[in-house]
Design brief:
Elements: H1 6-14, H2 26-36, H3 42-59, H4 70-82, H5 93-112, H6 140-149, H7 153-163, H8 171-175, E1 181-182, E2 187-191, E3 203-207, H9 213-223, H10 241-251, H11 260-272, H12 278-285, H13 289-295, H14 301-308, H15 320-332, H16 345-351, E4 354-357, E5 360-362, E6 376-380, E7 385-390, H17 406-416, H18 419-433
Antiparallel strand pairs: 1-2, 2-3, 4-5, 4-6, 6-7
Length: about 425
């Protein structure tokens, strides 16, 4: 009956057939929903009201929630993207998704109330995704400069709790009480409204890290042990700590970085994982390991410097001198060249005969010279050039005198000469014989 015409519904209601119809105007409906969420924290209500204002600006005060279509949902996303901040920058993608996520809750409530059958914003992306371009690591030097530019001890502690305690700001920072500080155990109890709806994750214990402790001690001394909250100033909802932090950063002569407080926490998480196991850091920061990997851990200059200090693992390459020496040894190695070559040139000149026939020299052959009818072959050594055979073949008995019979010559040629040498020798022999 929620989809029936208003006039028809009024008649049925007057007859007692249906109940009184609640407002289906978008803005009154959303206001009623927010007012009924008594379980929400004040800062969450602030975020819901911000989304309500965007809906009001885009759809108007008289918009009927039943008339909103999927096309209207797409136009709402485009409208969010067009919104500019004080610096003329468009709304970040993840901020658009967060407002879309809240708006979806409003329309889902309309489905539960039987006013709508489907959510016109259901197709819009609302899951926050990591944006590497907006991740920024705050170095210890920059952190020191900002701390020195803070106006008082309270602001120094706010900054230190975010940068060196990894607390969410403002929610966890402003909820921290002096009774949560255990000076003996050197740890603090951090209450988290963001994770309180998860079983067993409403609070966590965090060490009083050495970089954080001096600022806590200073604030405690100034408080004189009085007061409930560690941060007693800047507690009002109207206090925009992010805007004030940007002013302090500029006072330190630095450029304000994106996601001012979240990047302080991310920088601390990045520091801690260098020295502690991942599951321990996850517990201290109040994040799952996967969330920490996606949104918080960063690559810093310190990582690069550490990588450059690692000793080389690759064995050194052989020097050119070593290569030359190995090359020379390879050339002189008898097993890698022709067989039976003497080790040095002196030995080769004095001991290795050269078989000479018609201008063909066959170096490195230790046997006697060639014998063939009508040919004169010589055995050449370093001492002299001596005729070995002339005329007919001599008997084998003459072998010792330097004569080799023709039958043995063929076997000797095949055994000791390369094919091209044999071919050349035969060619010359045939030419002479003709």
């Amino acid at each position: 009956m929620q989809e029936a015409d208003d006039a028809i519904h009024e008649k049925l209601s007057a007859a007692g057939l249906v109940g009184e119809r609640r407002s289906t105007q978008l803005i009154p409906f959303v206001e009623e929903y927010i007012d009924g969420r008594t379980d929400l924290k004040p800062r969450t209500i602030t975020k819901f009201n911000a989304t309500k204002e965007y809906l009001f600006d885009h759809f108007g005060a008289d918009c009927d929630i039943r008339k909103v279509t999927e096309a209207d949902g797409q136009s709402f996303r485009i409208y969010l993207l067009s919104q500019k901040n004080g610096k003329g920058q468009g709304m970040a993608e993840n901020t658009v998704r967060k407002h879309t996520q809240i708006a979806k809750q409003f329309f889902n409530h309309a489905i539960h109330r039987k006013i709508l059958r489907v959510n016109p914003l259901a197709a819009l992306q609302s899951t926050v995704v990591p944006n590497k371009e907006r991740m920024y690591y705050i170095t210890h030097e920059d952190a020191r400069a900002v701390i020195d530019a803070c106006p008082d001890a309270q602001w120094r502690l706010i900054f230190a709790l975010a940068r060196y305690g990894a607390l969410r700001c403002p929610s966890e920072v402003l909820e921290l009480k002096w009774s949560d500080i255990d000076w003996n155990k050197q740890e603090m109890l951090v209450r988290s409204e963001k994770t309180a709806h998860h079983v067993g994750q409403g609070s966590r214990r965090v060490p009083l890290f050495t970089d954080l402790l001096p600022f806590l001690e200073d604030a405690h001394e100034l408080s004189g042990g009085k007061g409930e909250y560690v941060i007693y100033r800047y507690r009002g909802v109207e206090s925009n700590l992010r805007t004030q932090l940007h002013r302090i950063i500029e006072r330190a002569h630095l450029e304000p970085w994106p996601k001012a407080f979240q990047n302080l926490r991310a920088s601390r998480a990045t520091d801690l994982v260098l020295h502690h196991p991942m599951h321990v850091v996850s517990e201290w920061t109040g994040h799952s390991i996967e969330t920490m990997k996606k949104f918080y851990l960063q690559v810093t200059d310190e990582h690069r410097e550490a990588a450059l200090q690692v000793k080389p693992q690759l064995p050194p390459a052989a020097s050119k001198d070593s290569d030359s020496q190995l090359s020379g040894e390879a050339k002189q190695n008898p097993k890698q060249s022709m067989p039976d070559i003497p080790r040095n040139a002196a030995q080769q000149k004095s001991q290795t005969p050269l078989i000479t026939a018609f201008g063909l020299e066959c170096p490195g052959l230790s046997g006697p010279s060639v014998a063939a009818e009508g040919l004169e072959l010589t055995l050449q050594t370093s001492q002299k050039r001596t005729p070995v055979f002339k005329g007919e073949a001599k008997p084998e008995a003459e072998f010792a005198k330097g004569v080799l019979p023709v039958p043995a010559l063929a076997d000797w040629l095949v055994t000791h000469l390369r094919d091209e040498q044999i071919t050349e020798l035969i060619s010359q022999l045939m030419g002479v014989k003709r």
